[in-house]
Specification:
This protein has 172 residues and is an alpha+beta fold. The protein is built from 5 helices and 6 strands. A 6-stranded mixed sheet has the order 1-2-3-4-5-6, sandwiched between helices.
Length: 172
C-alpha cells in the first residue's frame, strides 16, 4: 500500500517501516497506560523491529500522519476463516493520538486495514475490545462493527502457555 492522503481530512496513511518501531512501541505503551494496564505491557522497541518487518513479519502496521506528525496506527495480521473459506485480518491494536482524536483517523485506519486485507482476498475484519473501554465500544458500534455474542475469546499466556507448549515436548 503506497502512501496516500485521506480526502478532506488533513492526514495521510502509509505502511510502517522498521524505522517506525519506536513510534509503534510508544503508541502501544500509551494505549496500555490509557487502559490502566501499563504494568502488563512489557514489549520493547526491538520486539516491534524484530517481529514486524522482513520476510517473516508477524504483523503489519499502518501509520496515520497529520502535518508530518504521528496521528495513529493500526497493527494487524492476516487470519483465515475455515467457515468462510476466506482470509481476513485481525486488528490487534488501533491507536489514535490524543491530538488527532475526533478527526476520523481511527475510521480511516480501519478502512485502510480492511482495504489492505481485501486486496489480498480478505473478506472480513476481526478485533477485540478491552471490556472496560466504553469509548472504543461506542466507536466500533458507530462503524457497524458489532460484538459477536456467539464467541468468547480464550487465551494462554505466560505459565499457562509454557505448560501447554511443554506438553508437546514431553510427547516427542
Amino acid at each position: 500500500m503506497p502512501n496516500h492522503a485521506v480526502a478532506d481530512t488533513g492526514f495521510s496513511i502509509r505502511p510502517a517501516t522498521a524505522d517506525d518501531a519506536e513510534t509503534i512501541h510508544r503508541a502501544i505503551m500509551d494505549l496500555a497506560a490509557y487502559l490502566g494496564e501499563q504494568d502488563r505491557a512489557v514489549s520493547q522497541v526491538e520486539d516491534f523491529r524484530r517481529f514486524g518487518f522482513g520476510p517473516d513479519a508477524a504483523f503489519s502496521c499502518l501509520i496515520a500522519e497529520a502535518d508530518g506528525a504521528f496521528a495513529g496506527l493500526s497493527l494487524f495480521f492476516p487470519v483465515f476463516s475455515t467457515w468462510l473459506g476466506k482470509p481476513g485480518v485481525y486488528v490487534q491494536d488501533l491507536y489514535v493520538s490524543p491530538a488527532a482524536r475526533g478527526r476520523g483517523v481511527g475510521e480511516a485506519l480501519l478502512a485502510a486495514t480492511a482495504a489492505w486485507s481485501q486486496a489480498r482476498g480478505g473478506a472480513y475484519l476481526r478485533l477485540s475490545v478491552d471490556a472496560e473501554n466504553r469509548n472504543a465500544k461506542a466507536f466500533y458500534a458507530r462503524l457497524g462493527i458489532g460484538w459477536n455474542e456467539n464467541e468468547h475469546a480464550h487465551a494462554a499466556y505466560e505459565a499457562t502457555f509454557e505448560a501447554l507448549a511443554s506438553r508437546q515436548t514431553r510427547q516427542e
